[in-house]
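Per-record layout

source: Exophiala xenobiotica
name: HAD phosphatase, family IIIA
length: 228
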Amino acid sequence: MPLFSNVPALRLTLAYALHDPSTLLPHGTIPTLLSLPLPIGPSLPTKPRIRAIVLDKDNTICPPETANLHQAYLSKVEKIRQSPEFSQNVHSILIVSNTAGSSSAPEHEAEAKQLELELGLPVLRQHPDRKKPLCGPDILRYFKDHGVTEDPKEIVIVGDRLATDVLVAREMGSWSVWCRDGWRNPEMPGRDYRGFLSKMENRFERLMRGGLGRTAPPPKTALQSEKP
């Protein structure tokens, strides 16, 4: 995937980095998805009620640009599914990726179907002009239409990128949990799958928190869901 393939995300990220950089900080930070606390709500500021979760694919559930599922991650997803926060509605967990399901391209649709088959979870079919971090209204509409929640503050976004996963949570008015190290193989934890931009985000986050003492603002007033 080209380095700057998601130009709208890059523009929005740069605008916030210049004018409101704290917006790019996550509400929670974990090394990888395997460390996600369950239930999630008590680990977040103000201990909100959480009823829905969005999971990123690339470098969160799977190695980047693949749909390869390690048993440890399959087991973690099953624990998320069984958590009281998400066990009441089968639509409480949604995969949102800027590859799988992000366009009508055969490879993106094939990845989405593979994930749905192997994980038993839905993959959002994104509008081609509204990839993360611009797909917030589509996520909100999904959870509303499936009777999960209409309150964006009951939704948490989990992923490895500040510029897409954390930023879409900010745009929605939801909570964010950042997988700082991305995807790691438990048998080979030293191998780093992060790309250049991800590593730059890590430096930015360390500077903001450690150097400048900034913290993530609470979820803002949410966007309204849009019609397709």
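summary: The two ends are 27 Å apart (CA to CA). Residues 25-186+193-209 form a domain with the Rossmann fold fold (CATH 3.40.50.1000).
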